[in-house]
Amino acid sequence: FTSPPLQRAFAAVVYVSEGRRTAVLDVIERVAREATAPRRPVALVNVFRDAEYNRTGFTLAGRDVDDVRRAALDVAQVSLREVDMRAHDATHPRVGVVDHVSCHALAGERAGAAKLAKSIGEGLGTLGVPVKLYGDAASDGIGLDEIRRRSGYFSGAAGGRWTGEFAVERGFAFDYGPSDVPEREGFGMVGAVPWVCNYNVPLAFTFADEGLDAETRMTRAMAFGRAVAKRVSARGGGLPSVQSMALPHGGKVEVACNLLDVDASSTVDVQRATAAAVAETDALKILGAGASAMVEDGYVTNQTPESIIRAIDAIDAR
Questions:
Q1: Active-site residue (options: 88, 92, 100, 249)
Q2: Distance set, CA 174 to CA 12, 143, 147, 192, 196 (Å)
Protein backbone atom coordinates (compact mmCIF):
# COMPACT_ATOMS: atom_id res chain seq x y z
CA PHE A 1 0.00 0.00 0.00
CA THR A 2 1.34 3.41 -0.96
CA SER A 3 0.12 6.47 0.89
CA PRO A 4 -1.32 9.19 -1.34
CA PRO A 5 0.90 12.24 -1.75
CA LEU A 6 0.18 15.15 0.56
CA GLN A 7 -1.97 17.67 -1.26
CA ARG A 8 -0.57 21.14 -1.53
CA ALA A 9 -2.34 24.15 -0.09
CA PHE A 10 -1.21 27.75 -0.33
CA ALA A 11 -2.51 31.04 1.00
CA ALA A 12 -1.72 34.64 0.10
CA VAL A 13 -2.86 37.42 2.42
CA VAL A 14 -3.05 40.69 0.48
CA TYR A 15 -3.04 43.78 2.71
CA VAL A 16 -4.50 46.85 1.04
CA SER A 17 -4.24 50.37 2.45
CA GLU A 18 -7.97 51.06 2.46
CA GLY A 19 -10.45 50.32 5.22
CA ARG A 20 -12.85 53.26 5.39
CA ARG A 21 -14.39 54.00 2.01
CA THR A 22 -17.10 51.38 1.77
CA ALA A 23 -17.80 51.94 -1.93
CA VAL A 24 -14.13 51.46 -2.82
CA LEU A 25 -13.81 48.37 -0.63
CA ASP A 26 -16.94 46.91 -2.18
CA VAL A 27 -15.35 47.27 -5.63
CA ILE A 28 -12.12 45.59 -4.49
CA GLU A 29 -13.96 42.80 -2.69
CA ARG A 30 -16.16 42.16 -5.73
CA VAL A 31 -13.04 41.71 -7.85
CA ALA A 32 -11.61 39.40 -5.19
CA ARG A 33 -14.74 37.24 -5.26
CA GLU A 34 -14.81 37.21 -9.07
CA ALA A 35 -11.14 36.12 -9.09
CA THR A 36 -11.96 32.97 -7.13
CA ALA A 37 -14.31 29.97 -7.52
CA PRO A 38 -15.96 29.13 -9.84
CA ARG A 39 -13.66 31.11 -12.13
CA ARG A 40 -10.57 29.60 -10.50
CA PRO A 41 -10.15 26.86 -7.87
CA VAL A 42 -9.28 29.50 -5.26
CA ALA A 43 -11.19 30.44 -2.11
CA LEU A 44 -11.56 33.93 -0.66
CA VAL A 45 -11.51 32.70 2.91
CA ASN A 46 -11.34 35.98 4.80
CA VAL A 47 -11.85 39.70 4.32
CA PHE A 48 -10.90 41.76 7.37
CA ARG A 49 -11.83 45.44 7.07
CA ASP A 50 -10.46 47.78 9.73
CA ALA A 51 -11.67 51.35 9.46
CA GLU A 52 -9.47 52.61 12.31
CA TYR A 53 -6.32 51.25 10.71
CA ASN A 54 -7.64 52.12 7.22
CA ARG A 55 -6.48 48.70 6.09
CA THR A 56 -8.07 45.52 4.76
CA GLY A 57 -6.68 42.01 4.48
CA PHE A 58 -7.87 39.64 1.73
CA THR A 59 -6.93 35.98 2.25
CA LEU A 60 -6.88 33.85 -0.91
CA ALA A 61 -6.13 30.14 -0.87
CA GLY A 62 -5.87 27.23 -3.27
CA ARG A 63 -3.89 24.20 -4.38
CA ASP A 64 -2.11 25.75 -7.35
CA VAL A 65 0.48 28.52 -7.07
CA ASP A 66 -0.47 30.09 -10.40
CA ASP A 67 -4.18 30.22 -9.54
CA VAL A 68 -3.51 31.96 -6.22
CA ARG A 69 -1.05 34.31 -7.93
CA ARG A 70 -3.60 35.38 -10.52
CA ALA A 71 -6.28 36.00 -7.90
CA ALA A 72 -3.89 38.03 -5.71
CA LEU A 73 -2.79 40.17 -8.66
CA ASP A 74 -6.41 40.82 -9.64
CA VAL A 75 -6.95 42.24 -6.13
CA ALA A 76 -3.72 44.22 -6.37
CA GLN A 77 -4.54 45.72 -9.76
CA VAL A 78 -7.95 47.07 -8.75
CA SER A 79 -6.53 48.36 -5.46
CA LEU A 80 -3.82 50.28 -7.28
CA ARG A 81 -6.50 51.83 -9.46
CA GLU A 82 -8.78 52.83 -6.58
CA VAL A 83 -6.37 53.94 -3.81
CA ASP A 84 -3.93 56.87 -3.76
CA MET A 85 -1.30 56.93 -1.02
CA ARG A 86 -1.07 60.72 -1.25
CA ALA A 87 -4.58 60.97 0.21
CA HIS A 88 -4.18 58.12 2.70
CA ASP A 89 -4.41 58.57 6.47
CA ALA A 90 -4.13 55.78 9.04
CA THR A 91 -3.26 54.74 12.58
CA HIS A 92 -1.41 51.72 11.20
CA PRO A 93 1.97 52.01 9.46
CA ARG A 94 2.10 51.26 5.74
CA VAL A 95 4.48 51.57 2.79
CA GLY A 96 2.11 51.39 -0.16
CA VAL A 97 -1.32 50.76 -1.61
CA VAL A 98 -0.64 47.01 -1.80
CA ASP A 99 1.33 47.28 1.38
CA HIS A 100 2.16 43.67 2.12
CA VAL A 101 1.50 40.21 0.69
CA SER A 102 2.35 37.26 2.92
CA CYS A 103 2.49 33.82 1.31
CA HIS A 104 2.19 30.54 3.19
CA ALA A 105 2.41 26.82 2.48
CA LEU A 106 -0.38 25.33 4.58
CA ALA A 107 0.34 21.85 3.23
CA GLY A 108 3.27 20.77 1.09
CA GLU A 109 6.76 22.14 0.67
CA ARG A 110 7.66 25.65 1.83
CA ALA A 111 9.39 26.17 -1.52
CA GLY A 112 5.95 26.48 -3.09
CA ALA A 113 5.17 29.51 -0.95
CA ALA A 114 8.47 31.09 -1.99
CA LYS A 115 7.56 30.51 -5.64
CA LEU A 116 4.16 32.11 -5.02
CA ALA A 117 5.71 35.16 -3.35
CA LYS A 118 8.24 35.66 -6.14
CA SER A 119 5.57 35.38 -8.84
CA ILE A 120 3.29 37.88 -7.06
CA GLY A 121 6.25 40.20 -6.54
CA GLU A 122 7.15 40.00 -10.22
CA GLY A 123 3.54 40.73 -11.15
CA LEU A 124 3.40 43.77 -8.89
CA GLY A 125 6.61 44.97 -10.46
CA THR A 126 5.02 44.90 -13.91
CA LEU A 127 2.20 47.02 -12.45
CA GLY A 128 4.73 49.70 -11.54
CA VAL A 129 5.17 48.83 -7.86
CA PRO A 130 8.67 48.48 -6.39
CA VAL A 131 8.79 45.20 -4.46
CA LYS A 132 11.09 43.94 -1.73
CA LEU A 133 10.99 40.21 -1.06
CA TYR A 134 11.47 38.71 2.39
CA GLY A 135 11.67 35.38 4.16
CA ASP A 136 12.01 32.23 2.05
CA ALA A 137 11.48 34.28 -1.13
CA ALA A 138 14.43 36.63 -0.50
CA SER A 139 17.85 35.86 -1.92
CA ASP A 140 19.43 37.88 0.90
CA GLY A 141 17.32 36.21 3.60
CA ILE A 142 16.02 39.52 4.94
CA GLY A 143 13.04 39.38 7.29
CA LEU A 144 9.88 41.48 7.19
CA ASP A 145 10.73 43.25 10.44
CA GLU A 146 14.15 44.25 9.11
CA ILE A 147 12.63 45.72 5.91
CA ARG A 148 10.23 47.70 8.04
CA ARG A 149 13.00 49.05 10.25
CA ARG A 150 15.25 49.98 7.32
CA SER A 151 12.45 51.61 5.32
CA GLY A 152 11.21 53.90 8.09
CA TYR A 153 7.94 51.97 8.43
CA PHE A 154 7.72 52.77 12.14
CA SER A 155 8.70 56.46 11.85
CA GLY A 156 5.19 57.69 12.68
CA ALA A 157 4.87 55.49 15.75
CA ALA A 158 5.46 58.24 18.31
CA GLY A 159 2.33 60.09 17.26
CA GLY A 160 0.48 56.99 16.14
CA ARG A 161 -0.54 58.41 12.77
CA TRP A 162 0.67 57.98 9.20
CA THR A 163 -0.47 60.45 6.54
CA GLY A 164 0.19 60.88 2.83
CA GLU A 165 2.77 59.27 0.61
CA PHE A 166 5.43 57.09 2.20
CA ALA A 167 8.85 58.70 2.61
CA VAL A 168 11.29 55.82 2.18
CA GLU A 169 14.41 55.66 4.32
CA ARG A 170 15.57 52.42 2.81
CA GLY A 171 18.85 50.58 3.05
CA PHE A 172 18.11 47.90 0.47
CA ALA A 173 17.51 47.38 -3.24
CA PHE A 174 14.14 46.36 -4.63
CA ASP A 175 13.76 42.95 -6.25
CA TYR A 176 11.11 43.94 -8.81
CA GLY A 177 9.64 47.08 -10.32
CA PRO A 178 11.09 50.59 -10.52
CA SER A 179 14.00 51.65 -8.34
CA ASP A 180 12.25 54.85 -7.24
CA VAL A 181 9.12 54.71 -5.11
CA PRO A 182 6.11 56.38 -6.81
CA GLU A 183 4.14 58.70 -4.54
CA ARG A 184 0.75 57.33 -5.52
CA GLU A 185 1.47 53.59 -5.27
CA GLY A 186 4.26 53.42 -2.68
CA PHE A 187 6.07 50.08 -2.55
CA GLY A 188 5.17 46.55 -1.52
CA MET A 189 6.64 43.92 0.77
CA VAL A 190 6.07 40.34 -0.44
CA GLY A 191 7.36 37.26 1.31
CA ALA A 192 7.03 33.61 2.22
CA VAL A 193 7.03 32.42 5.82
CA PRO A 194 5.21 29.81 7.90
CA TRP A 195 1.69 30.83 8.88
CA VAL A 196 1.51 33.97 11.06
CA CYS A 197 -1.33 34.53 13.52
CA ASN A 198 -2.27 38.19 14.00
CA TYR A 199 -3.62 38.81 17.51
CA ASN A 200 -4.50 42.25 18.86
CA VAL A 201 -5.11 43.06 22.54
CA PRO A 202 -6.98 46.33 23.25
CA LEU A 203 -6.04 48.48 26.24
CA ALA A 204 -8.67 50.89 27.61
CA PHE A 205 -7.64 53.87 29.75
CA THR A 206 -9.22 56.06 32.41
CA PHE A 207 -7.80 59.39 33.58
CA ALA A 208 -8.62 61.09 36.87
CA ASP A 209 -7.49 64.51 35.63
CA GLU A 210 -10.52 65.84 33.77
CA GLY A 211 -8.47 68.77 32.49
CA LEU A 212 -6.41 66.59 30.13
CA ASP A 213 -7.32 67.06 26.48
CA ALA A 214 -7.82 64.10 24.13
CA GLU A 215 -4.42 64.51 22.46
CA THR A 216 -2.56 64.44 25.79
CA ARG A 217 -4.51 61.40 26.93
CA MET A 218 -3.70 59.51 23.75
CA THR A 219 -0.03 60.54 23.92
CA ARG A 220 0.21 59.09 27.42
CA ALA A 221 -1.81 56.01 26.48
CA MET A 222 0.49 55.37 23.51
CA ALA A 223 3.59 55.69 25.71
CA PHE A 224 2.11 53.16 28.12
CA GLY A 225 1.10 50.87 25.25
CA ARG A 226 4.60 50.97 23.75
CA ALA A 227 6.08 49.98 27.12
CA VAL A 228 3.65 47.06 27.34
CA ALA A 229 4.26 45.96 23.73
CA LYS A 230 8.01 45.93 24.33
CA ARG A 231 7.61 43.68 27.38
CA VAL A 232 5.41 41.26 25.42
CA SER A 233 7.67 40.94 22.36
CA ALA A 234 10.58 38.57 21.88
CA ARG A 235 12.74 41.54 20.89
CA GLY A 236 12.03 43.11 24.30
CA GLY A 237 12.74 39.92 26.23
CA GLY A 238 9.14 38.71 26.33
CA LEU A 239 7.44 35.80 24.59
CA PRO A 240 9.38 33.79 22.00
CA SER A 241 8.33 34.19 18.36
CA VAL A 242 6.16 37.23 19.09
CA GLN A 243 6.49 40.63 17.41
CA SER A 244 4.40 43.47 18.80
CA MET A 245 3.79 47.20 18.58
CA ALA A 246 1.31 49.64 20.10
CA LEU A 247 -1.19 51.38 17.81
CA PRO A 248 -4.12 53.77 18.44
CA HIS A 249 -7.45 52.13 17.69
CA GLY A 250 -10.82 53.77 18.29
CA GLY A 251 -9.88 55.76 21.38
CA LYS A 252 -7.97 52.81 22.82
CA VAL A 253 -4.48 51.46 22.24
CA GLU A 254 -3.95 48.01 20.81
CA VAL A 255 -0.97 45.79 21.43
CA ALA A 256 -0.85 44.40 17.89
CA CYS A 257 1.03 41.10 17.77
CA ASN A 258 2.38 38.78 15.11
CA LEU A 259 2.62 35.24 16.46
CA LEU A 260 5.27 33.63 14.28
CA ASP A 261 4.88 30.21 15.90
CA VAL A 262 1.68 29.50 17.84
CA ASP A 263 3.25 26.35 19.29
CA ALA A 264 5.93 28.51 20.92
CA SER A 265 3.54 31.30 21.99
CA SER A 266 -0.23 31.01 21.71
CA THR A 267 -2.95 33.66 21.81
CA VAL A 268 -3.59 32.62 25.42
CA ASP A 269 0.09 33.22 26.20
CA VAL A 270 -0.07 36.66 24.60
CA GLN A 271 -3.22 37.60 26.51
CA ARG A 272 -1.63 36.60 29.82
CA ALA A 273 1.67 38.27 28.99
CA THR A 274 -0.12 41.51 28.11
CA ALA A 275 -2.02 41.47 31.42
CA ALA A 276 1.23 40.83 33.28
CA ALA A 277 3.02 43.62 31.40
CA VAL A 278 0.23 46.09 32.21
CA ALA A 279 0.49 45.18 35.89
CA GLU A 280 4.27 45.63 35.83
CA THR A 281 4.32 48.95 33.94
CA ASP A 282 4.39 52.14 36.02
CA ALA A 283 0.99 53.70 35.34
CA LEU A 284 1.58 56.58 37.74
CA LYS A 285 4.77 57.63 35.99
CA ILE A 286 3.46 57.29 32.41
CA LEU A 287 -0.27 58.02 32.70
CA GLY A 288 -0.41 60.30 35.73
CA ALA A 289 -2.04 60.23 39.15
CA GLY A 290 -5.29 58.30 39.34
CA ALA A 291 -5.06 56.95 35.78
CA SER A 292 -5.34 53.27 34.96
CA ALA A 293 -5.20 50.80 32.07
CA MET A 294 -7.51 47.83 31.58
CA VAL A 295 -6.71 44.82 29.39
CA GLU A 296 -9.59 43.72 27.17
CA ASP A 297 -9.99 40.40 25.39
CA GLY A 298 -7.85 40.11 22.28
CA TYR A 299 -9.00 39.01 18.84
CA VAL A 300 -7.55 37.35 15.76
CA THR A 301 -7.86 38.94 12.34
CA ASN A 302 -7.83 35.84 10.14
CA GLN A 303 -8.78 32.19 9.85
CA THR A 304 -6.64 29.29 11.04
CA PRO A 305 -4.66 27.10 8.62
CA GLU A 306 -7.09 24.25 9.38
CA SER A 307 -10.17 26.29 8.46
CA ILE A 308 -8.47 27.58 5.30
CA ILE A 309 -7.66 24.04 4.18
CA ARG A 310 -11.29 23.06 4.79
CA ALA A 311 -12.34 25.89 2.46
CA ILE A 312 -10.01 24.55 -0.22
CA ASP A 313 -11.36 21.04 0.32
CA ALA A 314 -14.88 22.39 -0.24
CA ILE A 315 -13.84 23.67 -3.67
CA ASP A 316 -12.28 20.30 -4.49
CA ALA A 317 -15.55 18.59 -3.60
CA ARG A 318 -17.66 20.62 -6.04
A1: 92
A2: 20, 14, 11, 16, 24
